[in-house]
Amino acid sequence: MATVAAAALVLSGCSSDAKKDDNAGISTDTAVNIAWNQPFYSFNGNSITGNATANNVILYLLQSHFNYYDADLNLINDTSFGTMEKVSDDPLQVKYTYADTATWSDGTPAGPADLLLEWAGQSGKFNNVEPEYDEETGDVTNQAALDAGVYFDGATPSVALITDTPVIEGNSITLTYSKPFADWQVSIDNNLPAHIVAKRALGIDDPTEAAAALVDAIDNNKVDDLSKIAKVWSNDFNYVEMPTDPDLYVSSGAYVLSEYKKDQFLTLKANPEYKGDNKATIPTVTVRYNGDPMSQVQALSNGEVDLINPQSTSDVLTAVKALDGIKVETGTEGTYEHIDLQFANGGPFDPATYGGDADKAHKVREAFLKTVPRQEIIDKLIKPLDPEATIRNSFTIVPGAPDYASVSEVSGQAAYDVVDIEGAKALLAEAGVASPTVRVLFDPDNTRRVNQFDLMVASAKEAGINVVAYEVQDGWGSDLSSATSYYDAALFGWQSTSTAVTESDANYRTGATNNFYGYSNAEVDALFDQLQVETVPAKQVEILGQVEKHLVDDAFGLTIFQFPGVTASRESALTGVVPLTIAPGIFYGFWDWSAGSAAASK
């Protein structure tokens, strides 16, 4: 159920690229309406492009997996979909067996070919080319090579440890790791239907024959076939409105996609082919997109939606508490705000800008970070919601967790707790860089982010740093990974998808899924190599502390605060909502939801 396959943080969906339309997505025959911030844009939530909360909260209802988290964050095996078993420690081998009840919505059984495809997509084993971009236009400059080669848009460090091709026997598939891995239970999971990918890539209509051809291409490294398969896996499942081809939304979960109007709403219907345990209790769910938190509150007040989880402000909290018949829950969420810097985009933080002078680029990065007014942001924007809110000073550990204090102390990030304008000026003077311009990527429709940006602009100006807003092109979430030449810093949130200790690996390892910035430190990579095989909790914490110290020493960026959360629901329309502190948040446990009389009469 939960998207735990990649064991990586996902881009938080606390944003919107949606048009503001107060009537968007209202359906008179929908049992339950839910407001959400950012529109869905990829059915492949495990690709680099699709790895975002906006996608994965929807996929949570559309896809089945071997594992999911319960309300207490215990990892539960969904035996109605299949089982996973560690069959060997040396080497580490894990056997996945699909249940007879594991079925795609087109009636095709789910099976080992599906997991084999996911391994090929995320391991990087078959990639023989990567996209190259024009620094000025951002256009791909090696399209011909990409078309001729193999490029899966995925890079998961844990899956890359599975270097040997997995072995299929009947309805089971066994994966062998090249070395022990602490988080093997959440390393990989089911994702896209292999028979559909093969049908589109290889032109084979029969599901059994298509899946067999895909297995053959992977087992025998058939480059021509793999090139086509990779393109379909990477590209075909990315869309922002209802596809004309129903193959592109074949699902394995409790719901199927039935309608999607660009930037407005997405409707899901109960999947008649679903044979698993966690069945849909509400026949129809519509997710209505609106990035304006107060507009969501208004929609809840008007009865247009039944559940909201907007990015909260003091005005939002006051407004929902004033509504009659609305259940309001507050608390810290599993998302944290942060700012990351670009290391290789030709901007002010890139050594190449200064003829390869890494020390000069480092001083400029450090100078900028000294101006980020983290405490002011918390005092003005977060404390009205959470009076106990403090600066988050760890890249990997949640505040309040047992090891947070020790990791934070080792990292030294607290040195940036207080804005140091004079220190920033001195660093710029030492670097010989006057009035650098920093282009910041953030969601321009997100009120809290706009307010944070304004505070950053004013603070940086005092040090002679010109902070400007990057102009969003294809949606800020898409631009984060595709427009790296055009912004110098990114202000957004990461949301946890699992409790895996290696979850942060994909953010900071060279070339990994969530490392959009060209950041590369061989010692950090080596530390993550150690973390992957370390099973002693105390030593895991020690390694994370060392990783964080490198991030601080390299002036990678800063964490700012843990999200204060507000969930509001109309109890007469919907009950059973139990928000999870990690993804999928408010969508967790939909199989326990009940539609009230108000919802049923819509």
TrEMBL record:
Query: Looking at the UniProt record for this protein, which Gene Ontology cellular component terms does it annotate, in alphabetical order?
Result: ATP-binding cassette (ABC) transporter complex; periplasmic space
Chain ranges of the Solute-binding protein family domain = 86-499
Give the highest taxon in the source lineage: Bacteria
One of the GO BP terms on file: peptide transport
Question: What InterPro entries does the annotation carry?
Answer: Peptide/Ni-bd (IPR030678), SBP_5 (IPR039424), SBP_5_dom (IPR000914)
User: Could you tell me one molecular function GO term of this UniProt entry?
Assistant: peptide transmembrane transporter activity
The protein's name in its UniProt record: Peptide/nickel transport system substrate-binding protein
